[in-house]
Amino acid sequence: MEQPLLRSETPDYETFSEKSEQEQEQNYIRTLKNKRLFLATFAAVLGNFSFGYALVYTSPVIPALERSPNPALRMNKTESSWFGSVFTLGAAAGGLSAMVLNDLLGRKLSIMFSAVPSVIGYALMAGAQGLWMLLLGRTLTGFAGGLTAACIPVYVSEISHPGVRGALGATPQIMAVFGSLLLYALGLKVPWRWLAVAGEVPVVVMMVLLCFMPNSPRFLLSQGKEEEALEALAWLRGRDTDFHREFQQIQNSVQQQSSRLSWAELRDPFIYKPIAIAVLMRFLQQLTGVTPILVYLQSIFHSTAVLLPAEEDAAIVGAVRLVSVLIAATTMDKAGRKILLFVSGYAMGWGPITWLLMSEILPLKARGVASGLCVLVSWLTAFVLTKSFLLVVNAFGLQVPFYFFAAICLVNLVFTGCCVPETRRRSLEQIESFFRTGRKSFLR
User: Fold this and answer.
1) Does domain 31-213+263-437 fall into CATH 2.160.20.10?
2) Phi first, then psi: what are they for 364, rounded to 5°?
3) Helix ranges, 56-130 (H)
């Protein structure tokens, strides 16, 4: 009888029946050289840094433009809501394009491609002479953010090994929070046009560094490029390690799958269950309200009776988010992913862990398309919330959307308990094996 959908009695589980095989895996992990893996991860997640920076760009800029002496740039409430929300439409379009580019260009080249709309978008906002330039620039930076949101977690997950995948899987969120914090800090002193100019820097650095980084070995194998995949894995793990053993495991997993996902295969629980879980995680994460809160953070503080200036309050929020996500990065490989979803707030749980789980549980043959679908659903949801947030606040008060967000958090607890798997210390091939076989031993 087929096992229930990922219901686990304990957060840990065993995949292999033989203890010696597990010991070999742990011994192999201890011999690995991680310096180059860390470098490749850093190069990639600079895209998330830019994404976090661009997402909250409106927080200090909207209040400045609402008071602008230039009539062509001065915004009313409706225009402000479009300026804040159009980023999410661009991000949704980026997620849609990732459904094609992730498998067409590969993870690394897709991340590099995102630099083009990002650079153009920042340039348009820096030199804006009218509202249309601001909106177009915001849309393009959103497109770049959506593309990187789909590609970077997959790239980082596929180049990582189980010993560090949890910590490295949190780095996209860490860097996004760093980017947001820098924006809040610069927003205290730097004019809004120069904030856009500063946003170009991490994008350019990312492009340069990624030129020297390898592509994902799993992606290369899926394209039949065995020699290039072996070379990439050797570069990432160190040539004096037993990387051939890991390469064989990845190769066996890839060979069990056809190269392209067919519509008929979507009826297979091995395919649709992890996709459904990943999409619902992204949908519910956005319904917690994080995007409209971050986009309108200073405006929210302006409407409350806080003691500190709104600009300083926003910077404090950024600092708290950073500390929280750093704690998550250092604990998720020890405590597990699922427990953090239960006991922590957004920055420690539903922020970094949902992105990591998305990249872990999606099957290789569907990973490129499905990750783009997750981002598409996520940012379309974010657009609806961000566009309507100010309108709801003006009509019913600030408390109404926050009551809604609190109710969604309760729903998330139920969803986590019923449907979310624990993937700590499992290789991507082991996780795929569970969804394919439904073996109960995986959950013990």
Assistant:
1) no
2) -55, -45
3) 58-66, 77-104, 107-113, 115-126
